[in-house]
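Let's practice the habit of predicting before peeking. Look at the sequence and jot down your guess about where helices and strands might fall. Then scroll down.
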Amino acid sequence: MIEREAAPSVLVTDEARARLRDAAKSFPEPIAGIQLSLAGRGPEGFTHRLTLVDEGEEPEHDAVLPLGDELTLFVEAANADYLDGVTVHFDPADARANGFVFQNPNPLWLDELAVQLQQLIDESINPGIAAHGGYVTLLDFRDRVAYIEMGGGCQGCGLAAVTLTQGIETAVREVLPEIERIVDTTNHADGENPYYAPQKK
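Done guessing? Here is the structure:
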């Protein structure tokens, strides 16, 4: 992980800060603060996550930003470059993230290989598997290794491994041979047709 010279800048509006403060105060256990992290990327941009951090479980490398009222914001170290400049609002009419709305000025990817891979997924891979109700999301890209997640009809499908090796990996190898590995992080047991049936009682 590359150390940043400066802490990321995050703006939390007064309304959003009040909601976070109320959530921290209502939690039954002592809270060290709230972590801002990335949950994923998609056609509509980043997906963000706000998580209560238990006292004594503070993330070691996260940037620590005081929000006032004894409230602390931890900014996820692994994605600090992609969280720099984020503004967190609160809109009670927006149910996508319990009312929290995130404005993120950053590009989806800073690595040029990741940009090209995202384009390949959007323009070639996803249209190809959309006929089967599936899609692929590029979650992370580090050290020439791509971490993906399969969704829709691909999650839990018995042919997911074939789609990965004969479809996705083949397409990536032809266009972007510099990418060394594709890692499927999908929990296929949660799909509509899971590999693993629940144990009978």
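How did you do? The chain is about 25% helix and 35% strand.
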